[in-house]
Amino acid sequence: MDKIQEALNQAYVGEAKAALRLKVYAQKAEDEGYKQMAKLFRVIAFSEEIHGARALKVLKEIKSTEENLAASFESETQVAEVAYDQFVKLAEAEGNKEAVIHFSQSKDVEETHAKLYKEAMSHYMEERETDYYVCKICGYVADGVLPDECPVCGAKAKMFVAFDT
Ligand SMILES: [Fe+2]
Ligand SMILES: [Fe+2]
After folding, report:
1. How far apart are alpha carbons 31 and 52 in whole angstroms?
2. 2 pLDDT above the threshold of 90
3. Which residue from 8, 32, 121, 124 puts its CA 20 to 30 A from 69's CA?
4. Arithmetic mean of pLDDT, 98-124
5. Which secondary-structure segment (H or E) carries 78?
């Protein structure tokens, strides 16, 4: 990676992190009743996303949808099997229960992401329509049917949001 690519990559990672942090800040402001502050955090988050996406485009990392599905499948598998797997072991060794739950549930969810990509790759030419429901606790993505209970964290159906964008 040359110096410009490194800088672009750093910009992409930094902007992506900032956007997520600001969205969490916005939710916190919302919970505390600061509507305008929440809006401010959200609009800056959106702007940071534009920066991050632009850096990715300048990096020429955006390929065809078929290639993007394959890359996403690879990355989910890697994250689940390597990164989160190590994190779970680390948190267990340290006795940090909250982190153990977070890492192990995230690992399980990443595996289901990989599965969703794999299915999408095999249906690539016949784009099927489906609705998704997402667990607000662990991020589990249910395809087509709202479950009574989250298969990863056990949250009840009311903790799921219907995802329609
Ligand atoms: Fe994932
Ligand atoms: Fe869940």
Report:
1. 27
2. yes
3. 8
4. 93
5. helix 65-78
Ligand nearest to the CA of 101: 2
Ligand closest in space to the Cα of 139: 2
CA dist., res. 106 & res. 89, Å (int): 13
Task: Tell me how far CA of residue 80 lies from CA of 61, 107, 115, 146, in angstroms.
Answer: 22, 5, 12, 24
- Using the mean position of ligand 2's atoms as its centre, give its distance from the Cα of residue 132 in Å: 14
The token pair at 37 is: 């502050």
> Where residue 5 falls among pLDDT bands split at 50, 70, 90?
very high
Average of per-residue pLDDT across 43-59:
97
Residue 125: per-residue pLDDT: 66
Q: Ligand 2 centroid to 119 CA: how many Å?
A: 21
Q: For residue 93, what are the contacts with CB-CB under 8 A and spacing of at least 6?
A: none
Percent residues over pLDDT 70 in the chain: 99
- Judge whether 55 and 74 are in contact, CB under 8 Å: no
Q: How far apart are the first and last CA of the chain?
A: 35
Contact 9, 1 (CB under 8 A): yes
Structure tokens belonging to residue 43:
């609009």
